[in-house]
Amino acid sequence: MGVPVLVVAALLLLSGLPKIADPRPVAGTMEWLYDQVSARWRGSGGSPVDLSRPGRLLGLAEVGVAGWVVLGPSWGAAVALTLLAAGFAAAGLVGALSDVQVACACFGRQGRPLGYFHVLLFPVWVGAAWCVGRVEGFGGLDERLLALGLCCVGVLCVYLVRMWAALMPLAQHRRRAAMRVGTVTRVAHGEAEWLLPR
Fold first, then answer.
1. Half-sphere exposure (Cβ direction) of 77: Cα atoms closer than 13 Å
2. Nearest alpha-carbon partner for 114 in 48, 30, 47
3. Quick check: helix, strand or coil at residue 113?
4. Which residue has the higher pLDDT, 72 or 126?
5. Which of 52-61, 117-126, 145-154, 162-171 bottoms out in mean pLDDT, i.e. has the lowest?
């Protein structure tokens, strides 16, 4: 299987899993998009809607397409990937035409603002979909499951690195705060008191 197919599957997993775990960030983005589109078409803001369930469904769709791309690469998987990419590009276009910037929430809470960058990525996604459609079914189911497992391990490694990068500053801050507390009196077993200087 081609490397582009595995990269596409890994990106879809990275994008879909946070939406399944916590759909609130992408639901907020989708609500903003709904308001923007309804304001342009109807001339007024849309009514408040709860899009947390569609946000989670979007994550499930991304994970499903990732599995489809690896386990059964075909033109059907390519079309599904193209439809997802068209949705991303349309959201980017709405963001680019708006005066307000909103985070894309592609990979969870953080993300660049929706804009022309997402529109320019559409041809890249279409090229990746073409690769998915052209790739021949390689080996048996064992090899495909192994490839999907490698994608999942890669995604897990990325999450672990991100978690470590988020926790390290907190640990350093706690260590510095503990050092700034001041003089602490400690008593060792059977010994006199001693002071820990600042």
1. 26
2. 30
3. strand
4. 126
5. 162-171
Q: Is 96 exposed, middle or buried (0-12, 13-18, 19+ CB in 10 A)?
A: middle
Cα separation, 165 vs 1, in Å, equals: 32
Closest CA to 30 of 65, 66, 63, 57: 57
The total number of residues shown for the chain amounts to 198
Residue-by-residue DSSP string for 86-105: HHHHHHHHHHHHSSS--B--
pTM for this prediction: 0.73
Burial readout 124-144 (b: 16 or more C-beta within 10 A, e: otherwise): ebbebbebbbebeeeeeeeeb
- Report which of residues 159 and 63 the model is more confident about: 63
CA separation for the pair 178, 198 (Å, rounded): 10
As a whole number of angstroms, the distance between CA 29 and CA 104 comes to: 6
Give the lowest-confidence range in 19-28, 82-91, 98-107, 187-196. 187-196
148's tokens:
């999907």
pLDDT of residue 137: 55
Distance CA 68, CA 88 (A): 19
Give me 24's structure tokens. Answer: 């609130």
